[in-house]
Amino acid sequence: MSQSGSIIALATDKDELYEPHVDTSQVDESRLLRKIDIRVVPWLGLLYFLNFLDRGSIGNAKLYNMEADLGITDKQYLIALTAFFFPYALLEPASNVILRRVRPSMWLSSMMFVWGIVMMCHGFLRSYGGLVTLRVLLGVAEAGLYPGIVFYISCWYKRSELGTRIAAFFTSATIAGAFSGLLAAAISNMNGVAGKPGWSWIFILEGLVTILCAVASYWVISNFPETAGFLTKEERVFVIRRLRDDMQFSAGGEEFEARYIWQSLKDWKTYVAMGIYMGCDGPSFAFSLFTPTIINELGYKATTANLLSVPVYVWSCIVTVIVGFIGDRLGKRGYINLILFGTGLVSYIILITSRTPALSYFACFLAASAIYPTVPNSVAWVASNVEGSYKRGVTLAMAIGWGNLNGAVSSNVYRAQDAPWYSLGHGIILAYIAIGWLSSAAFMFLLRRENERRDRGERDEVIDSDNSGEEMNEMALKNGRFETVNDARREKGDEWSQFRYTL
């Protein structure tokens, strides 16, 4: 690092300590983290459980004569699935910006209430047009929940703590995958009740539970750390200070400015992250929507196929938790991504080449253990490398939204005429996973290169210098000139010269 004294140092301005008049010496950090964990993570896990359950229930309902009752073809069914993804993906960036500007308890709960109503309406369907309309409305209502939850969690925890928490709440998706099969098998026994088929009751009952939980969420979900009512004043200040020590300089509140959105749109990390998430989210959607169908086509009846999907999701749940724990302990999320994506490549090569039901069923386990852990590991990796709350919110929403948009493709790859082995569908998912592997490798390479440049002082800013030398003026023009270190940190976020990316 340069020695003129005008280049930033690692030290921070002491007078910039958040709420310096508040004494936090009596706060027990471990006890505080447990308190936050209990209050924040479990309920968010429940929300995502219901989100994943409601979104994928159409795959279970399909096995109980939904297509025949509505008089629709397999192609029309796939179009209806596709219609969901466009509003679901495109509205996510805007949703995260709104989330930061309003109370999470209001925004997330309202979103959930609306999609619960839409879900119930699925149980009263009579036509193909109604199905497409409701899938579009469901996409609008659910848009922003997952990126919103990830962003919300990232505002509470240090970078080294994100993986475990995101994995913990994301396991609710794998539990939903397992539970949906059991639940659908049970609810299908209501066939004929009130003159409605069993598949109708799947939508009605699941939608009703979602609505009830949405109402409770208005009181259960906490706001951001600086205003969280379940913490004392000292605890709120302690949380903000520890986040700022972890280079989350926007912790404690950040006024909205349009330039934060542009910072995300101009950052190369946003677009590489989109490639990573495309590689795991496309396969995730396809896997959740079609696992029962794939197992069914291997020679098992509808209820048996739903039940056989349960162990697959239980296994993926276990692996997801283990991977989240390892990611936080080792901090090597990029290497973990390469291993997981590599495992996914192997699993889909087996699915493409296998002509044995038992081997294909084993490959489903292998695929689940690769696909599901990659999702929380990837978002934790991206979130920990983007600073500025609005910028991080937009970057996460862009990456997750693009991944979700690819669900429109992956939900169409398993065609009825390709049964029972679905070689074309498996081949397309294999390509998605390859994109994820390559994007992860590129992300690692570029982050490492940028860290090396900062270590060499190539990104140093000029801080409050009267030096008018040519070298100093060149650095000011290139990297910026600021009155204080904290001005540089707030202005530049993760582009600040002392911020280091995690690999």
How would you describe what is shown here?
With 503 residues, the protein is mainly α. The chain has helices at residues 29-61, 66-70, 74-90, 92-101, 104-121, 128-142, 145-154, 162-187, 198-220, 233-245, 258-266, 268-297, 302-330, 333-353, 357-383, 389-405, 407-410, 423-455, 470-479, 485-492, and strands spanning 462-463, 481-482. It has a two-stranded parallel sheet with strand order 1-2.
Brief characterization of the structure:
With 503 residues, the protein is mainly α. It has 20 helices and 2 strands. It has helices spanning 29-61, 66-70, 74-90, 92-101, 104-121, 128-142, 145-154, 162-187, 198-220, 233-245, 258-266, 268-297, 302-330, 333-353, 357-383, 389-405, 407-410, 423-455, 470-479, 485-492; strands at residues 462-463, 481-482.
Task: Count the beta strands.
Answer: 2
What characteristic shape results from the CA principal axes? globular
Largest sheet: 2 strands, parallel
| Overall pLDDT level | 85
Helicity, as a percent range? over 70%
Helix and strand run: HHHHHHHHHHHHHHHHHHEHEH
- Count of separate DSSP helical elements: 20
- Spatial arrangement of strands, main beta sheet: 1-2
What structural class is derived from the secondary structure elements?
A: mainly alpha
- Poorly predicted runs of 5 or more residues: 1-15
Beta-strand percentage range = under 5%
Terminal Cα span: 22 Å
Rg of Cα set = 24 Å
Secondary structure elements and their pairing?
Elements (H helix, E strand, L loop, with lengths): L28 H33 L4 H5 L3 H17 L1 H10 L2 H18 L6 H15 L2 H10 L7 H26 L10 H23 L12 H13 L12 H9 L1 H30 L4 H29 L2 H21 L3 H27 L5 H17 L1 H4 L12 H33 L6 E2 L6 H10 L1 E2 L2 H8 L11
Parallel strand pairs: 1-2
Helix pairs in contact: 1-7, 1-8, 1-9, 1-12, 3-6, 3-16, 4-7, 4-16, 5-6, 5-7, 5-9, 7-16, 8-13, 8-15, 11-16, 12-13, 12-15, 12-16, 12-18, 13-15, 14-15, 14-18
